[in-house]
Amino acid sequence: IITGVLIMINIDLNKTSYNISLNAVEYKKALEERNKLYKEIESIKSENIDYRYKISKYEGNDPEKNKKLVEDMKSQLFDYGKLSGVTAVKGPGLVIKVQDGDIDKVLDTERDIMRKIFHQEDMALIINEARKAGAEAIAVNNHRVLPNTGASCNSAFIGFEDYSREYGPFYIYM
């Protein structure tokens, strides 16, 4: 009898199946989350394959591979320097001059005046459009615009995340 009871308890303890009831909305969300995770896993696997391929190109003591490795590293260093604003960028480009509109304090309403002033939203639009158009480097007057650069309106100035400010007219170099 004791052996039978122990067997029954053991069978009951190892029971791991359980049921969860989901309504249609919860089920749909669960499926979307699962599919999203599967896509993320595939993306990570693909990245992993790419990285393994890159690493395999540099393995060994072949002088040609070492030379290629140094060239690739210099190229990446230059690219990262451009992105971080450390490397000077030269070449044909575009300069946009932006300044506030002419304001007539007698005839213009406050709304008209606000529309004629260059604000941070305008600066953000110009910077984003320049990036979208493929600008390699962007500068506002003497301030280099980096990927994490934010702009704020400070009266007649445009302020940046490093607390520097530039005043109008604004020359935007691309």
Automatic annotation (TrEMBL):
InterPro entries: DUF881
Superkingdom classification of source: Bacteria
Family to which this protein belongs: Belongs to the UPF0749 family.
Record protein name field: DUF881 domain-containing protein
Gene source species: Clostridium perfringens
Organismal lineage: Bacteria, Bacillati, Bacillota, Clostridia, Eubacteriales
